[in-house]
Structure formats: structure tokens, C-alpha cells
Amino acid sequence: MAFFNGGSRALVEILTRFQSSERPMPVDHTFFELGSVRYHVQASASDPENVYLSISTPSLSHEASTSTCLPEFTLQEVRKMYHKFAEIVEPAREGYALTLKLNFSGLTRPKDRARAVRQVSLLQSIVLGSQLKHLLGSLGSSGATKLVYNHRDPFFVSRTPGKINAIFPMRFRDDTDVAVATSFFQELQDAGSSYAKAPKCSWSAIPPPELRGESVQHLTTNGGFVSFDIFERHVKRKRAAKTAWILLNFQAYVKYHIKCTRNYIQSRMRKRQESLAEVIQNARLRGGQDKKKLQVRKKSKRRLFSLGKAKKLQKGFRSVIDGLRRLRLRIRVKALDRFRRCFVMPKLATKKHDYLRLGA
């Protein structure tokens, strides 16, 4: 439960900033957490050593407590936790269930002050944990008590001989979350049965017998019902506060775990898709390159074929011309030579004539 330790980060930031300031400054902050928890921090510049912190948180069970004030067992738990540097102011600030006067001047070391601020940030978990511890100790043997830590996700506790049953109706918005949660609950059930010291865990798609008589709207779920068997050793001394805070944050922890698992699966699928797309792209590029190479090879083959054909034709033409030449040399008429020797044509004598130029 490291992710749900119950501390208020806003409260830690406000108190740390107030202590680290060089000169006193007035503080007046009001903020909400978890939709229903309200804080008010007030300090004046004239009295910088005292800081007034008020908190208003609804009761876990409206059936057990209808008043806005905190019960006495919760106030005793707060006094026990903050007796070194805080006092309970009575009556509390109007509109709030509890007001504390914080004074860190007695803590000289910065380490002790930081530890005190962290303890103050756990005020809500101490209040709710003390209420749940008291409810677990005062449960009757008849019926189940509905507890509301988050208005969207109430849960039930009931007492049977020798143990306490904590029942959580699980509701999810997406069908994918339901599928992941079902496998998670099965693993949780198997893991709980393998450890002897861990509370026994069971999961069912239908409401367990302890919830008979409850309204239908509280029993309408899409993720089934998760039940824990809590024994007396789980609610004794220091274990009681830890057990109470685990029960209060179980549903939030399950949803956090499922969202993380879903994001992990989606990221793995996205990486796998990208790797497959890269392989396909490389195959396409290789196919295009091979196609280009094939086209080049075909063109070169065509060129070689045309060159070879031209050479063959040229060779054929040359052979034909050579044949004709040889044939022409072989054809000679012998009688024509005799005729040429017998009839010798005499040469005609030419006489030069001198021409006189006629004068004018």
C-alpha cells in the first residue's frame, strides 16, 4: 500500500513553506481532497508559532454516528499521536469536526520538524482508521454494516463467530477493466490460500449470504464481490490501524492496479504493432528494390538480345556482300579479251591551231 499512505501532499507543502519562510507571513488556505474531506489552515503574522488546522470528514457509517463531531475514541487517538506538538481546540472551528493548534517551536532539528509535518498530513487516515477500528470491535452478530469511504464504492463489514467479513462490491466502467479484474481476483484468491498468515480471500460473481436484505442498487455490480476473512489477530494493537487503512483503500488500489495493467498491455500491443509495421515496410521496400532490379535485368537482357541480333544481321550482310564480291571476280568473259586484243582502236592525232587576235 505504498501508493495509498494516507498523507495529504497539499498540507505538507503548505506547512513546509510556512516553516521555511524567513519572515512571518499570514496563511489562510481552504482546500478539498477526495471530494468530501475539507481542510482549513490558518496562521497570523503576529503569532507565527501557532498554526490552526481544521478538518471536516464524513463519518464512515451514517447508521453508527449521525453527529458532525468526532467520537471520543477518535479524539483520544489524535491526542496520542500529536501530543508533542499539537493540542485539540474545543470547540472546533464552525463547520469543521476537529481543530488542532500546531506549535513546532519545541522541535529544534529540521529532521524532527519534517517528521512532524508528515505526521500531521496523516490526520485524515488516523481519523478514519480509528472509526473503522471501533466499528470492527463493536459489530453485532446480526446483519452487515455499510461503510462509505468513497461515495461511488461503499463496502460492507459483518461479524460471524470468530471472524469479521469485509465484502467489497466491485464496479468498473470499461469491459476491458472487468476482464483484467476477473483474472486479478482469481490470482488474489489463489495467493491468499497459499499464505497461512494472510486473510482468506474469496471472489464470487453473486452476492454472498451476508448481504441478504440489502438494497438492489448496492448489489448491482459487473466485477463481482471480493470478501476477506479478518481474524482477531489482524485488529490488535498496531495491526489494527494498518488493517483499517488497507480495507479503506482496497477498492482504490484494485482500480489503480488494473489501470496500470491495462496501460502495460496496451503499450506492449502498440510496440508489437509498430514492430510488425516496420517489418512490413521493410518487406515492401525490399520488394520494390527487387522489382527495380528485375526490371533492370529485363532491360539489359533486351539490350543484349537486340545487340546480338544486330550483330548477327550485320554478320549475315557482310557474308552476303563478300559472297557477291567473290562471285563477281569469278565471272570473266574470255572471248571479250580476244576481241579487245584483235581490234585495237587507233589514236586520233590532234593538231594544234594558232589563233590570231583580231584587232579593233
TrEMBL record:
One Gene Ontology cellular component annotation held by this UniProt entry:
Arp2/3 protein complex
Which UniProt keywords are given for this protein, alphabetically ordered?
A: Actin-binding, Cytoplasm, Cytoskeleton
Q: Does the keyword Cytoplasm apply?
A: yes
What biological-process GO terms show up in the record?
A: actin filament polymerization; Arp2/3 complex-mediated actin nucleation
Write down the superkingdom of origin: Eukaryota
| Pfam families linked to this entry | P34-Arc
Q: What is its main location?
A: cytoplasm
InterPro entries assigned: ARPC2, ARPC2/4
The protein's location, in the record's own words, is:
Cytoplasm, Cytoskeleton
Share what the entry says about its subunit structure, partners included. Component of the Arp2/3 complex.
Function, in words? Functions as actin-binding component of the Arp2/3 complex which is involved in regulation of actin polymerization and together with an activating nucleation-promoting factor (NPF) mediates the formation of branched actin networks.
**Family named by the database record:** Belongs to the ARPC2 family.
- State what protein this is by name: Arp2/3 complex 34 kDa subunit
Its source organism is Triticum aestivum (Wheat)
Name the gene: LOC123046136
